[in-house]
Amino acid sequence: MKEIIAIIRPKKVGPTRDALEKLGFPSFMAVRVLGRGHQRGIAGELACDIPEFLKGQGKSGGMKYIPKRMLSVVVPSADADAVVREIIKVNQTAQIGDGKIFVMPVDGAMRLRTDETGDAAIL
C-alpha cells in the first residue's frame, strides 16, 4: 500500500475528488493547511481579503503563508502511479503554486468496524 499526500489549491479539491472517485478511490482525507514554497506565495491568486499578519514582510507579491489543502489517500501499491498521474492531470496549471505530491509506503491498515486488514481495509 502507498499513501499519497497532495498539497493543492483549495479550488482544486472538488475536481480532484471527482477524479479520484472515477478511479475507484472515493475515500480520502482533506485538511486545510497554510504553507508556502520557494516563491513565498502569490497573494493575487486568492479571491479574498488577506489579513495583514499573513502578508509578506515587504516582499512584493509574496505572503508569509497561503492557504492550501492537503489530501491524503491510501491506495494499493499497484494503483499508486495511476492515482498520482490523475492528481497531476487535474492540478497542474504550469503556474507557481500548483503544489506538491508525496508518495510513502504504508505498512498496514485496519478497518475498525470490521477488522479487515491490508487492501481490504482501504477499498
Give a brief rundown of this model.
The protein is 22% helix and 24% strand. With 123 residues, it is α+β, with helices and mostly antiparallel strands. The protein has one domain (2-122): Alpha-Beta Plaits (2-Layer Sandwich), CATH 3.30.70.
Keywords:
3 helices; single chain; alpha+beta; elongated; about 120 residues
Largest β sheet strand count, sense and barrel closure: 4 strands, antiparallel
Q: Tell me the β content.
A: 15-25%
Tell me the series of helices and strands, N- to C-terminal.
EHEEHEH
- The CATH class is identified as Alpha Beta
Q: How far apart are the first and last residues' alpha carbons, in Å?
A: 11 Å
Question: What is the CATH topology?
Answer: Alpha-Beta Plaits
The total count of strands amounts to 4
Explain this structure.
With 123 residues, the protein is α+β, with helices and mostly antiparallel strands. A four-stranded antiparallel beta sheet has the order 2-3-1-4, covered by helices on one side. α1 runs antiparallel to α2. The chain has three helices and four strands, in the order βαββαβα. The protein has a single domain, classed as Alpha-Beta Plaits. It is elongated, with a radius of gyration of 17 Å. The termini are close together. Helix content is 22%, strand content 24%.
Q: What topology emerges from the helices and strands here?
A:
Elements: E1 2-8, H1 13-23, E2 29-35, E3 66-75, H2 80-91, E4 100-105, H3 119-122
Antiparallel strand pairs: 1-3, 1-4, 2-3
